[in-house]
Amino acid sequence: MKRPSFRAWLSIVSLLLIVVMLYLSRHELERAWDLTSRVDVWVLLLVAPVVAIGYLAAGEMVFSYLRQKHVIHHVSRWTQMRISLELNFVNHVLPSGGVSGISYMNWRLGKLGVSGGKATMAQAVRYVVGFAGMVTLLLISVLAVTIDGTVNRWIIFMSSVLVGMMVVATMLGMYLMKSVTRLERFAHYVARVCNRAVSAVTFGRVPHAITAVAIQSFLRDMHEDFLELMKDRKILIRPYLWGLFFWVTEMAVFWIVFWSLGSPVNPAPILIAYGLATFTGLVVVTPGGAGAYEAVMVIVLAIAGMSQGEAIAGIVLTRAIILFVTVVVGYAFYQHALVKYGSKPKPDL
C-alpha cells in the first residue's frame, strides 16, 4: 500500500489546524452571527474592496522591491493578492510567530523564479517596512489621542509604551545586525532559552528543539541583507509607502464594521488596540492568537471610552470576517498552490 505523500500529510495537518482555530473561535463566531441583525449590510459590503486592496498592498511591499531590483516583472496584481492571502492563511493557522510564513513565502517566490537569497531579502524588506509603517502610524495616533483631551490617559500611556518598545526593538535590531559576533552570541542565547522552554513543556522528552548553528546561519543571511539594504536605502521608499497604505486598510476594515453597527469610532484608539493585539498574537501559541487577540482589543477600546458591548460587537464581527476570508479563501489558494507546484519543503530550523 502506497504511503501518503508529504503534500497529503500537509493538507491533513492544515485542515486539522483549521478545525482547531474554528473551535477556539466558536464563541466569537456565534456572537458574530447574532450581531448580523444589527448590521447595515450596504455599509458592511464596503469591507470587500478594502480587504482586496489591503492584500494588494501587502503583496506590493514585497513585489515593488523585487521589481526595483529587476528580479521579477511578470507577476500580475491578481497573483500578488493570491500570494498575500496564502501567506496570511499560513501565519494564522500555524502558530509559529511568523516563521512558517517566511518559509512558505520563500518557497512560493522560488516558484516564480526568485532565488533563495533574493526571496529572503524581500521578506526582510517586507517586515522592516511593515514595522516602520506601524511605528509611523502609532506615533501619529499617540499625538492624536494626546491632543484629544477626551481620551483616557491610560490609552496615552499604553500607546506611548508600545511606541517606545517598538522604537527600542528597532534600535536593538539594528545594533545586532551590524555585527556578526553579536548575532552569534544572540543565536546561542535564543537557542538556549528555546530549548529550556521546550524541555520544560515536554518534561525533558525533547531537550534540543533547535540548534544555535541553524539560527546563526539564518542571522548571517539577515546580516548580509541588512548591509545591502543600508547601501541602497532609497529602494525602501516605495515598499514603505505600500506598508503605510496596508496598515491604513487594516484599520479601515475595523472602522467600516463599527460604522455598519451604528457605532463610528475614533481610528486612533483602533490602531493602538490593533498594535497591542498584533503583538499579543505573535507570542500566544493559539492559531491566529485566537482569544487573546480579541480580549486585548476589547479592553483597549473599553478604556478608550467605548462601551464594552459595542467593542465586543465590532471586534468579534471584524474577526469573523477576517477568519472567513483567511480560512475559506486563503486555504483554497494555498491548497491550489500545493497542487500546482508540489509539496512545500520543511523549514530548515
Task: Kindly give the count of domains.
Answer: 1
Mean pLDDT: 76
Distance between the termini: 32 Å
What class, by secondary structure content? mainly alpha
Helical content stands at: over 70%
Largest sheet: number of strands, sense, barrel closure: none
Please give the radius of gyration in angstroms.
Answer: 21 Å
Low-pLDDT ranges: none
Strands, total number? 0
Q: Per the principal axes of the C-alpha atoms, what is the gross shape? A: globular
| Number of H/I helices | 14
Tell me the β content.
under 5%
**SSE string, helices as H and strands as E:** HHHHHHHHHHHHHH
Short description:
This protein has helices at 6-24, 26-35, 41-44, 47-68, 77-93, 99-110, 116-147, 153-177, 180-201, 212-231, 237-260, 267-283, 292-303, 308-341.
Question: What labels would you give this structure?
Answer:
349 residues; mainly alpha; globular; 14 helices
Detailed description of the structure:
The structure is a single chain. By secondary structure, this protein is mainly α. It has one domain (41-341). Helix content is 77%, strand content 0%. α7 (116-147) packs across α12, α8 (153-177) crosses α12 (267-283) and α11 (237-260) packs across α12 (267-283). The protein is globular. The model has no long low-confidence stretch (mean pLDDT 76).
Secondary-structure map:
Layout: H1 6-24, H2 26-35, H3 41-44, H4 47-68, H5 77-93, H6 99-110, H7 116-147, H8 153-177, H9 180-201, H10 212-231, H11 237-260, H12 267-283, H13 292-303, H14 308-341
Helix pairs in contact: 2-14, 4-5, 4-7, 4-11, 5-6, 5-14, 6-7, 7-8, 7-10, 7-11, 7-12, 8-12, 9-10, 11-12, 11-14, 12-13, 13-14
